[in-house]
Write a structure and sequence with these properties.
The protein is mainly alpha-helical. The chain has a domain of about 80 residues. It is built from 3 helices and no strands. The N and C termini lie far apart (about 185 Å).
Length: about 190
């Protein structure tokens, strides 16, 4: 028998190209591009975006919780400071109360506040220039604290005497009384 004729390969003369090539494309365009010419992958994928959103929500929720925590800590610190201050006030008031149990303290307060004196003692009250009594807020000035006036230089005194010699003061003569007798001024 005669040898069988070989069938040509499928696809004809272009057997190495795929059959589903779109019209208008070249046969070489269907091949894969080299690695350097491939389109770059997007920077954020859908998974990365979702993960970023979840992370942002967690940060926001923890930040608000942290803010509330820090605010409460500051309130606690302020409350502790107020407690310490109030305890100091209570201690001072307790000491003041115990002082009022002492008869000598009561006597001292009666003398200072009301001007009371014991029988046989003489009380004095300091008054100001108008005759009003001085209160506890008024203070007499210590003479040592008053600034002494600075004396004038000697040449100033000499200059004043020269001026006085040049222009002497005129003395006014008193007018004589017309009537002699006892003083009758009302």
């Amino acid at each position: 028998m005669p040898p069988k004729a070989r069938r040509p390969e499928r696809g004809g003369p272009r057997a190495g190209t795929p059959r589903n090539v779109r019209p208008g494309q070249r046969a070489g365009a269907a091949r894969s591009r080299p690695a350097q010419q491939q389109a770059p992958r997007p920077r954020f994928t859908n998974r990365a975006t979702i993960l970023l959103v979840v992370f942002a929500i967690l940060v926001i929720s923890y930040a608000s919780s942290m803010r509330a925590y820090l605010h409460q800590r500051s309130q606690i610190q302020e409350s502790r400071e107020r407690i310490v201050e109030e305890k100091a006030k209570i201690k001072a008031l307790t000491t003041e109360k115990s002082r009022w149990d002492d008869p000598s303290f009561i006597e001292q307060q009666a003398r200072a506040r009301f001007g009371w004196v014991l029988p046989g003692e003489t009380g004095y009250q300091v008054t100001d220039a108008n005759g009003n009594p001085l209160t506890g807020e008024d203070r007499l000035t210590d003479p040592d604290t008053i600034a002494q006036p600075k004396p004038d230089a000697w040449w100033v005194a000499v200059g004043e005497t020269v001026d006085a010699a040049d222009h002497p003061k005129k003395l006014v003569k008193p007018t004589p009384a017309t009537r002699l007798g006892p003083n009758t001024t009302p």
